[in-house]
Design brief:
Helix Hairpins; eight-stranded mixed sheet; single chain; ten-stranded mixed sheet; rod-shaped; Rossmann fold; 22 strands; disordered N terminus; 40% helix; 17% strand
C-alpha cells in the first residue's frame, strides 16, 4: 500500500469495492464469483479493468459506475453476477458514488449556465454574489468567483446578512443568489421595501417554483422587473429558466431550459417587461376635479377630462386595462396623520391599493410625501392663486366723468376760465369788437359754446380775436372727440372699483385664507415671502369646495387653489350673462409641475416618463385641456338652453349691447341737476328782484 495514490472520484468506488470486505467474505479474489465483472481470468484482467475505468473515457467510466453491463459478457451471466450474494453489499456504495457523480455534473452544468448568463446579459454590470453554507464551496461558485466584473461576495446565513449587500450603486447591477436554504431571503424580501435594488437583475438558484412565486409576490419582488430563477430539471445537467411576470397572477413562467452547454431556445433572459404588459389590470385612484377629471350626469356618469385622456393614452402605450376607484369620502388628495400614515389618494398609493393616482397632482414633497409615493415626470404646469369676491361695480352715473382723470378735468376747467378771460380782454382792448364779447359773462358763454363745439352766430371782427377763436376751435375739436370716444366705452363697460390684488394687500386685510386640506398651508409656510408665512395663521382647512366657497361669497375670505381650476370654477359657477361674481387675484405664488402619482419604487415609472415626454412635446396635454373645457361648456349650454345666457365662448362672436337707462343714467342725472339749478336760480331772481312800479 506504500505506493498507493488517491483514485479519481469514479475509480475510487472500484478501489473501495476491491479492498473492503463484505460480511462473511474475505478480500481474496477467490471469494468473488467466478466471472465477476470486477475480477476476470487471468487476474491481470482486473487490473486492466481498473485502469480502464480510471483513465478511460467519461462515458465508459460512467456506464460502469452505474452498473451498466459489460457488452463483452452475455446478458444472463451479467444479471446472475449482479444478483450474487457476494456483490450485493457493495451496490449501496456504488449508488452513493453514482449520486455524487450526478451532483458534480449538475454543479458543473450550473457553473456553465451562470457563466453564460453573466457573459450574455451581465457583462457590463457590477456583480454581487450571495451564497449560503450549502453552496459556498461548490464548483459553480468557484467558476463564478473567476468572473472579471465581480464586486462583492457575501456569505448569508440569516435575513440580517442581506442588509450588508451593496444596494446603492450606479450603472447596471447584477445579483447572483446561490442558496440551499432560501428561507432567509424570503423573510428579507417581505420585511419592507428598503434596502433593495428594484432596478437590479437578480439570478436566484435553490428555490422551488412555489418559493420563487413567493419571492416575486413579496413586498420587494412585486416591484422588481428582473428576477430570473434557475430550477433543477429531471435530466442530468438540465436547469429550467423561469422569469417573473409583473402585474400578473401567474407570478413566474418558464421561458427556456439549459442542457449542459446551451439553451433549448434563444429567449431574452432580461427582456423589457414594461414594453408590453399584455393587458394587465392597473388600478387608478382619482376623483372628480374639474376640468381635469369630471363625470357627466347627463351622459350616465361618463368620465371625461384632461387627466382621463392622459391615462387612457398611457394605457394604450403599456397595453394595460384600467379600473378606477375613489378615495374614501371627503379625503380627496389626503393628509398626513400623527402616526405618519396618509389618507386619501396618497394613502391609497402608500397602502398599495392602487397603482396610479391622477387629479391635477402637484409634484412636491410637502409633509415628506415622497417617502410614501413617487411621481412621474411632469406633463403640465400650474400656479397657486387666490379666488376673491368681486366688489360691486361703480355706479353708472359716474361714467360721465370717467373718460378723463381728475387732473384732466381740472386742466379743462382752467382752460375754460383762461380762454374766457383772454377773449374778454382782447375784445375790450381792440375797441372795435362786438359789444357782447366785451362783457365777461358773454365772453365766458362764448368760450363754453366753443368747448361744446356749438356754432356761434357772432363772428369776431378783430384779427387778434379771430386768431384766438381759431385756436380754441382746434383745441375743442380734439378735446371733445377724445371725450366722446372714451365715453362710449365707459357707458357700455362695467367698471369695478380698485380691488385687492397683491399678497401685501391680502395680508393687510382681515380676510381668511381657505383651502382643501393642509397642502397649501405647508406651501405658504415654506415660502420665502413674509406675507405668505404670516397668512398661514389665518389658513382654514376644509374638506369640500362648497363649504370653503361660502366664506368667499360672503366676502370674509379668499380661496386658494390652482389657477386652471379657479378659472373653471369662476366661469361655470359664478358667471351669469357674461359677468362673474368672482375674480382671481393678480399676484399668485408657487408655480408647480403636474405629474402622475405612483407607488414608491413603482416599475412603471421609466416607461411612463418616456411616454409622458412624447405626449408633452406633441402638445396633446393642452389640446385635451381645451377639449374638456369645450365639452363642459356644451353641457352647461344644454342645461341653460332657452335662458338667453350670453356668457358663451369667444368663438361665437361678440354680442351687441344696446345702451339702456343704466348706461345713460349719468346724463339724465346731469339734466336733472341742471333743471334744479335753473329753478333755484329763477326762484332766487324772483325773490331778490325789487318791486316794479308802473
Amino acid at each position: 500500500m506504500g505506493g498507493w495514490r488517491p483514485c479519481s472520484s469514479r475509480a475510487l468506488a472500484l478501489c473501495l469495492i476491491l479492498v473492503i470486505p463484505s460480511a462473511g467474505a474475505t478480500t481474496t479474489p477467490e471469494t468473488l464469483p467466478k466471472g465477476s465483472p470486477f475480477l476476470r481470468d487471468p487476474p491481470a484482467g482486473g487490473a486492466h479493468l481498473l485502469q480502464r475505468r480510471s483513465v478511460g473515457s467519461h462515458a465508459t467510466s460512467l456506464a460502469l459506475l452505474q452498473g451498466v453491463p459489460d457488452m463483452r459478457t452475455p446478458q444472463p451471466l451479467q444479471q446472475e453476477r449482479m444478483n450474487s450474494p457476494a456483490i450485493a453489499p457493495h451496490l449501496g456504495l456504488l449508488a452513493f458514488f453514482r449520486k455524487k457523480t450526478q451532483q458534480e455534473e449538475e454543479e458543473e452544468a450550473l457553473g456553465s449556465l451562470l457563466t453564460t448568463i453573466v457573459t450574455r446579459e451581465l457583462q457590463h454590470c457590477s456583480l454581487t454574489v450571495a451564497v449560503d453554507d450549502g453552496l459556498d464551496d461548490s464548483p459553480a461558485v468557484r467558476r463564478v468567483l473567476q468572473l472579471p466584473n465581480l464586486r462583492q461576495v457575501l456569505r448569508v446565513r440569516t435575513w440580517e446578512d442581506y442588509v450588508g449587500l451593496l444596494w446603492e450603486r450606479s450603472g447596471c447591477r447584477g445579483y447572483l443568489l446561490l442558496l440551499r436554504d432560501p428561507t432567509p431571503l424570503l423573510t428579507f424580501a417581505d420585511m419592507g421595501e428598503d434596502p433593495w435594488d428594484f432596478s437590479g437583475r437578480y439570478v436566484v438558484v435553490g428555490m422551488s417554483t412555489e418559493q420563487l412565486q413567493q419571492l416575486t409576490s413579496s413586498r420587494k419582488g412585486r416591484k422588481t422587473e428582473h428576477i430570473l430563477g434557475l430550477l433543477q430539471a429531471g435530466g442530468a445537467g438540465e436547469w429550467e429558466v423561469l422569469l417573473n411576470q409583473l402585474y400578473s397572477r401567474s407570478g413566474v413562467r418558464r421561458v427556456t431550459t439549459w442542457r449542459s452547454t446551451t439553451f433549448t431556445n434563444d429567449h431574452l433572459l432580461f427582456p423589457d417587461k414594461m414594453a408590453d404588459l399584455q393587458g394587465a389590470a392597473l388600478k387608478v385612484v382619482t376623483f372628480q376635479f374639474a376640468p381635469h377629471m369630471m363625470e357627466s350626469a347627463s351622459e350616465g356618469g361618463q368620465r371625461y377630462g384632461r387627466d382621463l385622456q392622459l391615462v387612457t393614452a398611457l394605457a394604450n402605450v403599456l397595453n394595460v386595462t384600467l379600473t378606477f376607484q375613489l378615495p374614501p369620502s371627503g379625503e380627496l388628495w389626503g393628509r398626513k396623520l400623527v402616526d405618519d400614515s396618509w389618507t386619501g389618494l396618497v394613502g391609497s398609493l402608500a397602502r398599495q391599493e392602487a397603482d396610479l393616482g391622477v387629479a391635477n397632482i402637484f409634484l412636491s414633497n410637502n409633509n415628506n410625501r415622497r417617502l410614501v409615493q413617487d411621481f412621474t415626470r411632469f406633463y403640465d404646469a400650474d400656479v397657486s392663486c387666490f379666488l376673491a369676491r368681486k366688489e360691486p361695480p361703480l355706479a353708472s352715473w359716474q361714467s360721465l366723468a370717467l373718460p378723463f382723470t381728475l387732473h384732466t378735468w381740472l386742466a379743462i376747467l382752467a382752460g375754460l376760465g383762461l380762454t374766457s378771460l383772454a377773449l374778454f380782454f382782447i375784445a375790450s382792448a381792440s375797441g372795435r369788437e362786438v359789444e357782447s364779447l366785451q362783457e365777461v359773462v358773454s365772453a365766458a358763454l362764448y368760450s363754453w359754446g366753443i368747448h361744446l363745439r356749438v356754432s356761434q352766430e357772432r363772428v369776431p371782427r378783430g384779427v387778434a380775436t379771430q386768431v384766438l377763436v381759431l385756436v380754441m376751435l382746434v383745441y375743442a375739436i380734439i378735446l371733445t372727440t377724445g371725450y366722446s370716444c372714451n365715453l362710449t366705452a365707459y357707458l357700455t363697460v362695467v367698471r369695478s372699483p380698485p380691488s385687492m390684488d397683491t399678497l401685501r394687500q391680502l395680508h393687510a386685510s382681515s380676510q381668511r385664507v381657505l383651502g382643501i386640506g393642509p397642502f397649501f398651508k405647508v406651501s405658504m409656510a415654506s415660502s420665502t415671502n413674509i406675507y405668505l408665512q404670516e397668512l398661514t395663521e389665518r389658513y382654514v382647512s376644509h374638506s369640500s369646495f362648497q363649504e370653503a366657497l361660502v366664506s368667499v361669497q360672503d366676502g370674509t375670505g379668499v380661496f386658494i387653489e390652482s389657477r386652471k381650476f379657479l378659472e373653471y370654477l369662476m366661469n361655470t359657477q359664478f358667471t351669469s350673462h357674461g359677468t362673474s361674481a368672482m375674480r382671481i387675484m393678480k399676484e399668485c405664488f408657487a408655480p408647480y409641475s403636474i405629474a402622475i402619482a405612483l407607488q414608491k419604487h413603482s416599475p412603471l415609472k421609466p416607461k411612463l416618463d418616456q411616454a409622458l415626454s412624447w405626449i408633452f412635446e406633441s402638445g396633446l396635454v393642452r389640446r385635451w385641456f381645451l377639449d374638456s373645457l369645450m365639452r363642459t361648456r356644451q353641457l352647461e349650454q344644454r342645461k341653460t338652453a332657452g335662458e338667453g345666457d350670453s356668457s358663451g365662448g369667444g368663438g361665437e362672436g361678440v354680442a351687441l349691447v344696446p345702451l339702456g337707462t343704466q348706461h345713460l343714467q349719468g346724463i339724465f342725472l346731469a339734466l336733472l341737476i341742471g333743471l334744479s339749478l335753473s329753478c333755484l336760480t329763477l326762484l332766487a331772481e324772483l325773490t331778490c328782484r325789487p318791486p316794479h312800479h308802473p
